[in-house]
Design a protein that fits this description.
With 174 residues, the chain is α+β, with helices and mostly antiparallel strands. The protein has a domain of 102 residues: Sandwich (Immunoglobulin-like), CATH 2.60.40. The protein contains 2 helices and 8 strands, in the order H-E-E-E-E-E-H-E-E-E. Strands 1, 2, 3, 4, 5, 6, 7 and 8 form an 8-stranded mixed β-sheet that branches. It is flat and about 80 Å long. This is Pollen Ole e 1 allergen and extensin family protein.
Length: 174
């Protein structure tokens, strides 16, 4: 009796070992630089991948030679989508790129469940000639805080902690 259960468990384990639960779809690509030196270090450049119908983004960071590899984002309730866009976000140093060179769609790769970029992602390390490179205005609000003096006997933290949310101290209630 025990022997039959051991054989059944062994056969079940062997069967499960051969089944691949999910085939992961990966994107492999490379970023390039048009005005860099031969031994430029590409490590640390951020790449994002957004697929149609999926709320989450996939992020990748390039290696020293500019290669990146990332699993495509997917929603487990829907079949995987291959309508994805790859975008060059930036890096440890200031990068200059045109809209055309920093966005690419994905296409089927040579191997099964692999994809690659359809157009090269490229950038410059310096502002191109005959163009005006302006720093974009800050898209976020100012981080400057106001600090109104509060009497120390109130025992409250500085008012800059409360400014995003209105706070009125109630004095005299125990």
């Amino acid at each position: 009796m025990v022997f039959a259960q051991v054989i059944t468990a062994l056969l079940f384990a062997l069967t499960m070992a051969r089944i691949i639960p999910s085939a992961c779809q990966t994107l492999e690509g490379k970023v390039s630089c048009t005005d860099c030196t031969h031994n430029y270090d590409f490590s640390g450049i951020m790449i994002s991948v957004k697929c149609e119908g999926v709320k989450n983004l996939a992020m990748a960071i390039t290696e020293e030679k500019g290669f990146f590899k990332v699993d495509l984002p997917r929603d487990h309730t829907k079949p995987p989508s291959v309508n994805c866009v790859v975008k060059l976000l930036g890096g440890p140093n200031h990068l200059y790129a045109t809209k055309k060179n920093k966005v690419s769609e994905i296409v089927k790769g040579k191997e099964k469940n692999t994809y690659t970029i359809s157009t090269p992602l490229s950038f410059l390390t310096s502002c191109p000639q005959n163009t005006e490179c302006k720093a974009t205005k800050n898209q976020f609000g100012s981080s400057k805080t106001l600090d109104f003096p509060l009497p120390p006997e109130w025992g409250l933290a500085p008012s800059s902690y409360y400014l995003p949310f209105p706070f009125y101290p109630i004095i005299g209630i125990p």
